[in-house]
Specification:
By secondary structure, the chain is an alpha+beta fold. It is built from 11 helices and 10 strands.
Length: 386
C-alpha cells in the first residue's frame, strides 16, 4: 500500500532495512540465545544517524518526527524486535528530556543521545507499581541544592547499558499523583547501582535490569520540569512513544508474515506447495490484512502527533493495542504455517512469537490501553452533550 512517504522517508526506510538485513539478520538467533546486547549494531545505527531522527536539529538530531522514528523501529523489528530496542528504548528514555527538559538540560543530554554515543532508559516500573504508575515508592528528598534518591526500579529496558536514565520518584508523599517528579540520573552516580538482569521469554538481545538507588545524590538541576509534574511527563511521553511499541509490533508481524509466505510457497506436501491449499491461503490473507491495517493506523497516528493537533492519548493507546494484538496473532499463525518446524529454535518464527508477546505488556498492558480508550470516549461523549 502506498502511504505517501516522501523520498527522504523512503531513503530512511531503505537505509534501515539494509542495516537490518546486513548486520542484524546474521546474528539474531545467536544474540537471542546468548542474550548478547548489540553494541556492534548500536555503532552501525549511530553512524547512520538513526538514533537522532526525531530529535531537533539544534540538538544534533535529524529534525524529523514520530513518523520517522516508527519507520526506523518497524524496519529494525521486522528482522529482530529485541535488537531494535537499543534504539526504541533509548527514544523512550529521551522523550521526557525532549518534552520536559529546559534548554540547558536539552543542550547537555540530547546531542550525545542523537549521535548514539550514549543510550537512555526510562525508569518508572517498580515491583509493586507497573501499570499503576501512581503507586511508585522510590523517593527523591530535597537536601539543599541536591535530591537524594532511595528505592528500586524493575524491568528497565536498556538497564545497565544506558548512560542516561529518566527516573520517576516521589517528592511529596502527601500529594499522591501530584507528588511525583521526573529526574535525570547518570550512570556512575554514587548510590546508583544495577541489580538483577532478567532472564526473559523474548527480546533477549535487549537488557532488562533492576535499578537500585541507595542515598543516590543528584544535583537539583537534574529535575525535569517542576516538582510534581512527573505524572505529566509520564503521560506525555507515552503519548509519543506508544506508537514506537506499535512500530515494534508491526515490524515483528511483517517479518513473521514474510517468513510464512516464503515457507508456504517453498514447502511441498503431496506433490504441491502448501500455499496452494485454500486453508493456508486464507490464513496468509488474514495475516496480511491485519498487518496492513495495523501499519495504516500506526502511520496515521504518527502523522497526527507530528502535526501538533493536540493530545493523542486515545489514538496512541489504540495503535499500541491493535498493533500488539496483531503481532501476537500473526506470529502465532506463522508458527502454525511452519508446523512442527515452527516450534524449533532453528526457525525464526518461534522467536518472533516470543518477542511479540511483550508488546502487549510494556508501556501499559493492553487491558490498561482499553481502559484509557474507553475513558476517553466517555469523556468526549460527556463534553459533546454538555
Amino acid at each position: 500500500m502506498d502511504y505517501g512517504l516522501s523520498d527522504e522517508q523512503k531513503d530512511l526506510v531503505a537505509t534501515t532495512r539494509r542495516i537490518a538485513e546486513e548486520h542484524m539478520r546474521p546474528v539474531r538467533q545467536q544474540y537471542d540465545a546468548d542474550e548478547t546486547f548489540p553494541w556492534d549494531i548500536v555503532k552501525v545505527l549511530a553512524e547512520a544517524g538513526l538514533f537522532g531522527v526525531y530529535i531537533p536539529k539544534e540538538y544534533g538530531g535529524g529534525g524529523r518526527g514520530v513518523l520517522e522514528l516508527v519507520l526506523v523501529v518497524e524496519e529494525l523489528s521486522r528482522v529482530d524486535g529485541g535488537i531494535a530496542l537499543c534504539l526504541a528504548g533509548t527514544a523512550l528514555g529521551t522523550y521526557p528530556i525532549l518534552l520536559m527538559g529546559n534548554e540547558e538540560q536539552k543542550k547537555k543530554y540530547l546531542p550525545p543521545l542523537a549521535r548514539g554515543e550514549k543510550l537512555a532508559a526510562f525508569a518508572l516500573t517498580e515491583a509493586d507499581a507497573g501499570s499503576a504508575a501512581t503507586e511508585i515508592k522510590t523517593t527523591a528528598d530535597k537536601d539543599g541544592d541536591t535530591y537524594v534518591l532511595n528505592g528500586a526500579k524493575r524491568f528497565i529496558t536498556n538497564g545497565g547499558e544506558a548512560e542516561i536514565y529518566t527516573v520517576m520518584a516521589v517528592t511529596d508523599k502527601k500529594k499522591g499523583a501530584r507528588g511525583i517528579s521526573a529526574f535525570v540520573v547518570e550512570k556512575g552516580t554514587p548510590g546508583f547501582e544495577f541489580g538483577n538482569k532478567e532472564n526473559k521469554l523474548g527480546i533477549r538481545a535487549s537488557a532488562t535490569r533492576e535499578l537500585l538507588f541507595d542515598d543516590c545524590r543528584i544535583p537539583a538541576e537534574n529535575l525535569l520540569g517542576r516538582e510534581g509534574t512527573g505524572l505529566i511527563a509520564i503521560m506525555r511521553t507515552f503519548d509519543a512513544t506508544r506508537p514506537g511499541v506499535a512500530a515494534q509490533a508491526v515490524g515483528i508481524a511483517a517479518g513473521a508474515l514474510e517468513e510464512a509466505v516464503a515457507y508456504a510457497t517453498a514447502r511441498k506436501q503431496y506433490g504441491q506447495t502448501i500455499a496452494s491449499l485454500q486453508g493456508m491461503q486464507h490464513m496468509l490473507a488474514d495475516m496480511a490484512t491485519e498487518v496492513e491495517a495495523a501499519r495504516a493506523l500506526l502511520y496515521a497516528t504518527a502523522r497526527m502527533i507530528d502535526s501538533g493537533a493536540g493530545r493523542s492519548s486515545k489514538e496512541s493507546a489504540m495503535v499500541k493495542l491493535f498493533a500488539s494484538d496483531t503481532a501476537v496473532r500473526v506470529a502465532r499463525r506463522a508458527v502454525q504455517v511452519f508446523g512442527g518446524r515452527g516450534f524449533m529454535h532453528d526457525y525464526p518464527v518461534e522467536k518472533m512469537l516470543r518477542d511479540a508477546k511483550i508488546t502487549q505488556i510494556y508501556e501499559g498492558t493492553n487491558q490498561i490501553q482499553r481502559t484509557e480508550i474507553a475513558l476517553a470516549l466517555i469523556k468526549e461523549a460527556a463534553a459533546g452533550g454538555s
